[in-house]
């Protein structure tokens, strides 16, 4: 379906003076996680919605882990929203959106938690990073990854996830590798991305 272009003053000025419409291609800046979350209405039919939590305290979000707090604060962390789901096997699925003051801050934070050289499992006792790879069709950067977690309720403790940056936000989906799996994470990550794009356009 073609997208109907909204004629804004900025666009009219760009057309009149022969320039480009900056707002059409600029990096989006979000001010709240609430409109970016999927809610129960945005999920595939076989998922069960269990709840949502919005957190604006970096100490609470990071569990008072000083080293993690320092990274988030340095990168301008503002707020996080987290939705908790269950897949068809009633295993946990989490959706997380974190906001930063700038897109650069979001990318900087991503580099400290979602790369093979510096994964988030560094800060999780009993967890081991099993590797990640770049993935297309979402924000940039974006990675699909796996890790094991002795404290997880997933079968064999194996977790799959997708995390990407879009604008000043980091979007993450994590589920159980042997139930919803990577395909389930891809599906929800894509839904999140389309919602974020629609939100920045509204």
Walk me through the structure.
With 202 residues, this protein is of the alpha+beta class. It has one domain (28-201): Protein Transport Mog1p, Chain A (3-Layer(aba) Sandwich), CATH 3.40.1000.70. Helix content is 29%, strand content 32%. It has 6 helices and 9 strands, in the order ααβααββαββββββα. Residues 1-25 have low confidence and may be disordered.
Question: Which short descriptors sum up this protein?
Answer:
202 residues; alpha+beta; Protein Transport Mog1p, Chain A; seven-stranded antiparallel β-sheet; two-stranded antiparallel ribbon; globular; disordered N terminus
User: Which strands sit side by side, in order, in the main sheet?
Assistant: 1-2-3-9-8-7-6
How many distinct beta strands?
Answer: 9
- Give Rg in angstroms: 18 Å
Proportion in helices:
25-40%
Name the structural class. Answer: alpha+beta
Overall body shape:
globular
Q: What's the total helix number?
A: 6
Order of helices and strands: HHEHHEEHEEEEEEH
Q: Within the CATH hierarchy, at the fold level, what is the topology?
A: Protein Transport Mog1p, Chain A
Determine the CATH superfamily. Answer: PknH-like extracellular domain
Total domain count: 1
Beta-strand level of the residues, as a percent range? 25-35%
What is the typical, i.e. mean, pLDDT?
87
Supply the CATH class. Alpha Beta
Question: Low-confidence parts, pLDDT < 50 over ≥5 residues?
Answer: 1-25
Task: Give the CA-CA distance, first to last residue.
Answer: 17 Å
Second CATH tier, the architecture? 3-Layer(aba) Sandwich
